[in-house]
């Protein structure tokens, strides 16, 4: 009987075998677990922003009118770091306390983990370059298909490029990189580590890859504040991005590479436009500019500041193409 108790469970394991005494969460319960843990993790951020806003010019009324843009990035960055680190920690606690399974079963596989993470960093940079190149090509072919503020990334004639070498910007940028590496990594632990492996144990890998990608997109429905058409296209792009990261994690049988690529991608999506705004407005601090950039990068700028057009198809087009390439390579390798 003792030997029989050491046999791993019979259900499919995505990354590594589950512990013999482990339990599965119900598949239908996973979105509710994510919502509950997300709500708990948001409490410190909400308190931090409320305290900061209360002491800022305009107080809480300014936050009600301007949203995140009324709060400095010097406050928001630590808040984002705390929230996503706490969210990932809560999910890990659930997996360890209720499901009783190992870190390896959630994608923390030990095999060449550092090499996978470093390669993921390079892939994240490549994703940013690829998206930028496709957007530049679209701008050259059909300038009217791209919003005016996205066509020229060279900066104004009077741009102060020296400000990017200053201590204020470098320090803020380094902290932002660390924050987004943790934030992106936390999302991978949650969606591709815990969620995808949990759904695989219930319904199989195909359903898990598709289901985790759809749920990942649904967790970004906040973009609907910028209009229904814009929001639907943006969520489609985010779900396509999630599909790529899901296939990446599945192909590597671990989340290290996807976590690094996701974090690098998020950091670049914010820091590149932040740098352009900084050289255009050198008299403002990076923290002052950060909230405005974050609103645009996350699709929260509002209907007046967003534009629906073919440029919104670039992200889903690129990531669906990359997903197809990864899928075909896995098929060829298996054959």
UniProtKB/TrEMBL annotation:
It comes from the Bacteria. Keywords: Hydrolase, Membrane, Transmembrane, Transmembrane helix. InterPro entries: Rce1/LyrA-like_dom. Its EC number is 3.4.-.-. The keyword Amino-acid biosynthesis does not apply. The chain crosses the membrane at residues 32-55, 75-95, 116-141, 161-182, 203-222, 228-248, 255-276, 312-330. GO terms for molecular function: hydrolase activity. The keyword RNA-binding does not apply. Pfam families: Rce1-like. Residues 172-267 form the CAAX prenyl protease 2/Lysostaphin resistance protein A-like domain. This is CPBP family intramembrane glutamic endopeptidase. It comes from Glycocaulis abyssi. The lineage of its organism: Bacteria, Pseudomonadati, Pseudomonadota, Alphaproteobacteria, Maricaulales.
């Amino acid at each position: 009987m003792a030997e029989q108790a050491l046999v791993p469970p019979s259900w499919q394991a995505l990354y590594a075998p589950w512990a013999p005494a482990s339990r599965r969460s119900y598949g239908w319960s996973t979105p509710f677990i994510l919502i509950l843990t997300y709500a708990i993790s948001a409490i410190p951020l909400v308190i931090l922003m409320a305290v900061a806003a209360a002491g800022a010019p305009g107080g809480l009324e300014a936050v009600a009118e301007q949203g995140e843009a009324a709060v400095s990035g010097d406050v928001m960055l630590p808040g984002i770091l705390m929230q996503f680190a706490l969210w990932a920690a809560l999910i890990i606690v659930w997996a360890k306390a209720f499901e009783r399974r190992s870190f390896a079963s959630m994608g923390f596989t030990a095999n060449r983990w550092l090499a996978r993470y470093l390669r993921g960093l390079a892939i994240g940079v490549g994703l940013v370059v690829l998206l930028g190149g496709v957007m530049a090509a679209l701008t050259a072919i059909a300038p009217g298909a791209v919003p005016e503020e996205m066509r020229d990334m060279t900066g104004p004639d009077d741009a102060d490029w020296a400000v990017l070498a200053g201590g204020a910007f470098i320090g803020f940028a380094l902290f932002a990189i660390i924050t987004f590496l943790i934030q992106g990594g936390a999302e991978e632990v949650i969606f591709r580590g815990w969620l995808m492996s949990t759904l695989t144990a219930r319904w199989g890998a195909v359903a898990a890859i598709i289901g985790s990608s759809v749920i990942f997109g649904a967790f970004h429905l906040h973009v609907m504040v910028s209009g229904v058409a814009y929001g639907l296209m943006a969520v489609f792009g985010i779900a396509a991005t999630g599909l790529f990261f899901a296939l990446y994690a599945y192909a590597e049988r671990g989340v290290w590479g996807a976590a690094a690529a996701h974090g690098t991608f998020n950091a670049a999506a914010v820091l590149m436009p932040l740098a352009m705004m900084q050289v255009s407005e050198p008299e403002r601090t990076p923290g002052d500019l950060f909230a405005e950039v974050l609103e645009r990068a996350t699709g929260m700028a509002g209907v007046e500041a967003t534009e629906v057009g073919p440029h919104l198809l670039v992200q889903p087009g690129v990531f669906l193409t990359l997903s197809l390439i990864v899928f075909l390579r896995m098929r060829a390798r298996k054959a």
